[in-house]
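In this section we walk through a basic example: taking a raw amino acid sequence and producing a predicted 3D structure, encoded as discrete structure tokens. The instruction is simple. Fold the sequence below.
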Amino acid sequence: MEKKIEHLAIIMDGNRRWAKDRGLAPWKGHEAGYERLKQIGEACLARGIKDLTVFAFSTENWKRTQEEVGFLMGLFEKALTVELDYFASRNLRLRILGRREGLGDKLVKIIENAEKTTAENTAGTLALCINYGGRPEIVDACKKLIAEGVTPEEVTEEAIAKRLYWPDMPDPDLIIRTSGEERLSGFLAWEGVYSELYWCQKHWPDFDESELDKAIGEFDSRQRRYGG
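The resulting token sequence is shown next.
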């Protein structure tokens, strides 16, 4: 009997390496990765995967060149404005996970509008992790606990989970990382503790539906015991 993937999470790695292999500028890889995300999002919906969370920009990615960071911020603005009609037509909700500080007022307003516009959509959720780190997310949740005056006796796993960036996020069933790297790099440090992990050798722009099906097939072959 096949196990159902309700929530898939992806570390979309390898855009720059994909571009370098082709003698292209790094942002050409990001453009290709953007188009690939749209295709894989549709493929997930076709396979009954309701929620998709992707690592788009980490708290460490600010170390990249100003030119590349600026291009990525522009790409996020495009995704969260031009694509809103698509999300409405597919009844999909957008969630943006990460620290808003440092993103710029324009992008923050665009994020807030995208989340508000799609908040009532129920067919599924695309969560984009932008300026995101798993440890910073836990730190921010702890700061909320302190600010709300929660006593030590009241601090539980549930109390922390309710103060994460997406409080009602279902834990991801499967986390995929592309481009041959085999580490999580802080992605969903709290939520992914029991997720199945799948490493794909292909760079993200080359991750197609056949690769997605390989990952799903591998997931189906595993036994999930949750420590039992």
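Looking at the output, two observations stand out. Helices lie at 15-21, 26-46, 66-79, 84-89, 105-118, 134-147, 157-161, 209-221. The mean pLDDT is 95. In the next section we compare this with other chains.
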